[in-house]
UniProtKB/TrEMBL annotation:
Keywords on record: Lyase, Metal-binding, Zinc
Any GO MF annotation of the entry: metal ion binding
Entry protein name: Uncharacterized conserved protein
SUPFAM superfamilies named among the record's database cross-references: Mss4-like
Family: Belongs to the Gfa family.
Domain CENP-V/GFA as annotated: residue spans: 11-123
One Pfam family of this chain: GFA
Length: 143
């Protein structure tokens, strides 16, 4: 976790149809926006995800997960298609889509990754770290 204060929680949320519910405890409120091609294709724009030390899903039989690369897995509700999480295999971390949660008022952008892959036409304001694809892959030990 970063230096940011964690949210004890639990924070609750769900997919669009309600078939999958999530409760997260000890949540890092800082999210990172990812501009990689896979995230943009999957979301229709950049992904914004948070991490939690403890996550419990209700309706797990409604979750479909697949390997989107040799080092990542993505999951969604098999009924409504809501994106649920991104699992980074090398570290074991799961990043939950920030939009799942009912109360997002304490979340804040902490950085952007794959900034060199961001298409023109939008930009996030603020003074936060921005990592290129190469910098990010090195940070997770993939280069």
């Amino acid at each position: 976790m970063s230096e940011s204060k964690t949210i004890a929680g639990p924070l609750s949320g769900q997919c669009l149809c309600g078939a999958v519910k999530v409760a997260a405890k000890n949540v890092n409120p800082e999210y990172h926006a990812c501009h990689c091609g896979m995230c943009r294709r999957w979301n229709g724009g950049p992904s914004m995800a948070i991490s939690a030390q403890e996550t419990v899903f209700e309706g797990e039989d409604n979750i479909t997960a697949y390997d989107s690369s040799e080092w990542a897995q993505r999951a969604f509700c098999k009924h409504c298609g809501t994106n649920l999480y991104y699992h980074l295999k090398p570290t074991g971390e799961k990043y939950l889509w920030s939009g799942l949660f009912d109360d997002q008022s304490q979340f804040k952008m902490a950085g952007e990754i794959y900034i060199d892959r961001k298409p023109p036409g939008y930009a996030f304001v603020g003074d936060h770290p921005r990592m290129t694809e190469d910098e990010f892959l090195k940070s997770i030990g993939m280069k």
